Structures are given as structure tokens and as C-alpha cells.
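INFO batch 0412 | record 1 of 1 | parsing
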Amino acid sequence: MSDARTTDLYEVTMAMSYLQEGMTAPATFSLFARDLPPGRGFLAAAGVESALDHLSGLLVGPDDAEAFADALHRPLRDLQPLLGLEFTGDVRAVPEGRTVLAGEPLLEVTAPLPEAQLVETYVLNQLNHRTTLASKAARCVLAAGGRPVVDFSLRRTHGTRSGFEAARAGAMAGFAGTSNVAAATALGIPAAGTMAHSYIEAFPTEEDAFRAFARAHPGPVTFLVDTYDTEEGVRTAARVLRDLGPAVHDAGSAVRLDSGDLGALARHARTLLDDADLPGVRITASGGLDEYAVDELVASGAPIDTYAVGTRVGVSADAPYLDTAYKMVEYDGRPVMKLSSAKVTAPAPKQVFRGPGYADVIALAGEPAPDGTEPLLETVMRDGRRTRPRATLAQCRDRLSADLAALPPEARRIREPVPPRASVSGQLGDLTARVRRALEERTRAAAGLP
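INFO prediction complete | emitting C-alpha cells
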């Protein structure tokens, strides 16, 4: 199925109407988050690259026109104006991996109005979902304080594609690996995995299971030790690891704790391993972890070396969506805005200038940069074609790492973060006031009011 059909029906009806009315002048739409979700001090921009892939490949073909006609219960000839539509416009965006704040455009599309309208749903979908996941993953990395984090989310994400995106978001945030083999292969990141409790249960004893696993996997091994009794599981793992020798137990082998009081169990496991002369054997923790649980464990001093996060991170359980909007801010050179209560938008194309300490300024696109600031939005597509190669995962990871390091401490906090607030430039503020007055006067005049 063509991606042109991955859209809401009203995008099609509006595009048809624009074409019929001859409204094909350039329009600019701005995509931004009105507010950050609760418990967030920042957003990690993601989904830009996949949105550009969609825009650069968009083509409404005969099958798409037929599908639109069926959905609208209209004859195919009514959809002919849409046939052959491609994206020919420009895109300015925050590069993938940069951090953004509430109200700041992640992306702006400028294109003939029917084109800019038809792509709204797909572009919103890509930036919403991926930014949500990347922001959650970045918080896990902050919580771990330099300890490795691994993605174990695939089995409970909302579909396999979502699982792939969770793995990519984790890799962009700095995760050490993923259990998702398809994602590891496609993205060139380490695959990570151990064993399930069912594997232990399949053998007569826990020790039989550990020894069999070591025979099948002679390199570093990780033994799941809480199928029956965690303390005895650690003792058994230590005995098997000692028999395997330093070439195995000092080469990255570990025990994994997957349930119970992970902090207390990790402390006890560390003592047992050290007493067995196995200081090089690491401790991995999993089981319902997210950044909040990781933060508590790290703060408690739990001797956990690696954190495996799954369900709650793969679906961003505490904040599973963003309040984002894709709003027209200019048509045919005329600045426009929305005045609805609690959903007011600012007119005209914009730029975000970032100053030291996230002293961000949202300004008009043509304004000069204030001293000591850098513009966040870059031209990434012109005339329907990318202006540069697709960003690599490593480039995105480096951007996010640098931006996280520069965040104010209160925004980096896992609990009750305080996000920086962007200010509005004087020119943008003045234009917003003028457009608002003009719209209010026009509304009163149309209603026959003084």
C-alpha cells in the first residue's frame, strides 16, 4: 500500500477543495508541542528523518486515487485533481537528536497548500511517536548515570514496527544494545539477551541449565538466577562460573536479577560473588524498570552494573503521547493564526535561537540571531528534495548527548523536573498582536458588531 494513503480522510477532502478553488499558493505549517508531558524537562527530537523519507517519496498514484474515491463514496473522476500529486516544497527542521522545549517548532513545511495539507497526518505521526520514545529513552540514560542501559521492550511494544523504533530511540539516546535482533542488524547496534525462566525450568536442575547454556555459548554468559531461590541461584551461578575459568567469568559474564527487591538482591548477590572470588562478574537488573526505578536504584547505591528496560520504556507508559500540533502560520505571504481558547498559535514562519543555559528565543524566521545564540531549525529539504544526506544514527546520538549535557540540572531531574521556557522575540510578539487585532476586527465586522 502506498504511504500516500496513510493519512486522515479530512486531509484528502481539504486538499481536493484547495485544488478546486485554485488555492495552490505556498503555505507554511509549523509542527510544535504546545506543552511538555507531565514529568518531562525536555523533548528529544526524533522522526524528522522518516518524515523526510515520506515527503521525498510522496506520489499520489492511480491506486491511491481509487482508494480515496472509495473512502469518500465519490466517482473516481472527482479525485483526478489529486492524481500525480508530489511534494515539491521546502522543509526546515530541528536536526534529529537535538532537544526542544514547549512551543518550539520541531519542523516547518512550506509548499503549495494542497501538498502541505495532505502530508500533515503522516508527518505528525512520525514526529509524535518517535520523539515520545526518544525522550523517554534519554531520561533512562540520565537516570543510569553512565551505567549501560539495554532495550528489552520488543515483546510488549505496540506492534513490531513500534518495537523497532523503540530500539532505535534507545540507540540514539545512548543505550548499549537491544534484544531486538532485527533492529540490531538493521541499525548496526549490539544485540543483547540472556535466557528466560522457561529455559531453567526445562532442565532437571538450575545447575544443569547453566552448564548447558555455557556449552552452547562459550563466550561471556549471563545466568538468570531468580527462577526458584535467588540466593541459591547466585551461588549456583558462581560455582559454574568458577568452573568455566577466568577466560569466561572475567570477560563480561553476569548474573541477571528479574524480580523482587532488586536493590537488596543486588547487594546480596555482589557479596556472594565477591566471596566466591568473582569480582569481575557483573550484575544485570531487569523486570518492569523505567527511569524512575533506575533512578531510585542508582541513588540507593545498588551495585547494579547494567539496567535492562522494557515495557514501560518501549511504550513510554507514563507519557505515551505528545500534545503536538501542525498549524498553518502563513498562506500566500499572509500571516495567519488560530485564536481558539487554549489553542492560540503564533503567526508566520519561525526560528528558534538557543542561548547558553537553554535561554531559547522563538523568533520570526528572518530575524538575525541574537548574540551568543545558534539557530536550531535548518533547511533540510528544498523543492521536494533533501539538501543533505540522511543523518546517521551516530550523528543523532552525538547531538543528543551534547544537548543533554548542556541542559540545566533542574531539567535533567527524573522526578519533578523544571523545563526551561523559551521566550518570544519582540518582533514575533508584535506581529502576533497585530494579526490578532486584525482577525478580531474582521470577526466583529462579519457579525455586524461595532
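INFO post-check: The mean pLDDT is 96.
INFO record closed
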